[in-house]
# Entry
Amino acid sequence: MSNPLIELTKHGQSIWYDNLNRELIRTAELRRLVDEDGVTGGTSNPSIFEKAIGAGDAYDDHLRELVAKDLSLEEIFDALTIEDIRLCCDVFAPIYDRTAAFDGYSSLEVSPEIAYNTKATTADAMRLFAALERPNAMIKIPGTPDGLQPIEDCLADGVNINITLLFGVDNYEQVALRYLRALERRVEAGLPIDRIASVASFFVSRVDSAVDAELEARIATAAGEIEHDRLRALMGKAGVANAKVAYAKFKELFSGPRWEALAAKGARVQRPLWASTGTKNPAYSDVLYIEELIGPDTINTMPQATLEAFRDHGVVRDTLEENVDVAFAQLAELEAIGIDFKAITDKLQVDGVKLFSEAFAK
# Structure
């Protein structure tokens, strides 16, 4: 029986694992994910690291070594996470080489505590990339308004960037344009662009959680069956619709004369990465955010439970460009009933930075 995860790669979608940690290396589980499930990259974040370091004994020896050096808690966390991502980069290195730098990346995030400090974010991203000493490392920078210039400057300086915490299509467009400008700056400076890599991490399930909460409040006070049914029909639709509209914007931005000039010099597209793809509402399919977002030049970063569920019963077909007109209509319908979608996505980004900052502070 074929593995649906492997089938995804035949449709132009890469599988990344969203829970990189030391235990995966120690048990060779990451190697198994690569060999058997077609995983070609991975990500982590402060929340994941905070949980991983506090569980089990995978970090004990390294922790004792670092504590003996009388380092601060921040320095210890820094050393542990840099080593994790460095080790993961080594596992993915053959993929990076085989795909000529298109795939095979591991991502490490800048401190979320400086997400609104432009200069500090740029400096931290540069520092981490240098410390990792791996060409297939990516540095995660939140796509906040204050993160836009660091994203451009770091890419222009040759640092691979994973833009994280993207929720709105307008915000996605901003970071994609920064990628294009960074490549143009390198061309203007006479620098190569064929191995500059970037992904735009667009969050999905959190959008449904937030929009569904708004819809449920309106359903509770709906005036009649018709209004009730109209609202109910929108439940669980916003996340996928939002991603499909973002992909339509991706197709628009990475075509035409501006992009073709860069592609002629070897530039690679900045791939959309579907993040937050574990289903949070048990009423929805546990593979909803995989099956509905399959298409070329994309990445889906999966938590363990979702990866296992898709391996077990996932259905693979090109879906990302199906019913795009319906997706636009669904987002317009949300606006028509008074749900301010941009306000929701902006708040989700602020809340995401806050969540990671709290984990980092621990």
